[in-house]
Amino acid sequence: MKILKKIAVFSLVFSLSAAAFADEAYDIVKKSSTLPAPDTSTATMMLYNIEKSGAVEEMPMKQHGRTKDGLIYTVFDIRGPASKKDTRVLQMERSKREDDRWIYMPKLKQVRRIPMGERYKQFVGCEFTYNDMAVRHVDDDKHEMLEKDVSITVPGGRKYQCWKIKSVPLKKSEVEYSYRIQYIDKETYLPAKIEYFDKKNQDQLMKTYTTEDWIYLTSKTGKKYTMRMKARIANNKTGRETVLEIKDPIMDGPMSDAYFTQQYLSSGKAK
What secondary structure does DSSP assign to 255-269, as a single string? Predict the structure, then answer.
């Protein structure tokens, strides 16, 4: 009987510990995915598509964002190269429903909605996907704490002290990977690194995201935000990479709602 009681007590303690770890992982990812967002934002973004051969394609774009009534609106206006110029993408992120995204294709001169089944595809030909350009909802995944204190160094030399958390999507048809390993920075709650694993071979690393630089930025209204300034995503299968750099960010400045309309997508003019 004593042995059975010990087993029962051990099982209870193990179950409670596992549940506590799961809750802690969930809380950390929730905080990471709901960092304070400015009412408005604008910035110049530079995407560098780097081939395995070393050839580089530059893709400048303008970004405008607004947080309003619990929704996050973001529009990306591609300014180059010539083959992609005037392509525009509008996304509307919701907290409790699936996001909406539209793309304007200048060659066809039409706006179309990007269905959920296509959001794992490349964002205008780069290694970031449409899913990567938005923040994933915490309740879209099941989260498990793997390690509570991990030191990592990302390309560029920045060091982070992180929680290491495994996040498994509940709807695998909506994403291009089987699961993610997230390294979440303890100071900022930014994802310092994310490893994506292949759907067919779950032990194979498919792509790796890293936050190479960030700053604390004070907005026009005096609020303080954590701002990612440089990020990289590497395709571990092909050797191709995309580097994203943010230039001249402005937070909480004046902003017209006209940017977040399909009319702006097709015309490029906010009236």
Answer: --GGGGSHHHHHH--
Length of the chain: 271
pTM recorded for the entire structure:
0.88
Q: Which of 144-156 are b and which e, b meaning 16 or more Cβ less than 10 Å from the residue's Cβ?
A: bbeeeebeeebee
Residue-level pLDDT at 2: 52
- Classify residue 38 as exposed, middle or buried by CB count within 10 Å of its CB (0-12, 13-18, 19+): buried
Band of residue 156 on the pLDDT scale cut at 50, 70, 90: very high
The one-character DSSP state at 239 is -
Helix, strand, coil share (%) of the chain residues, nearest 5? 20, 45, 35
Contact call for residues 29 and 21 (beta carbons, < 8 A): no
Average pLDDT over residues 159-163: 98
Question: pLDDT tens-digit profile of 176-186?
Answer: 899 999 999 99
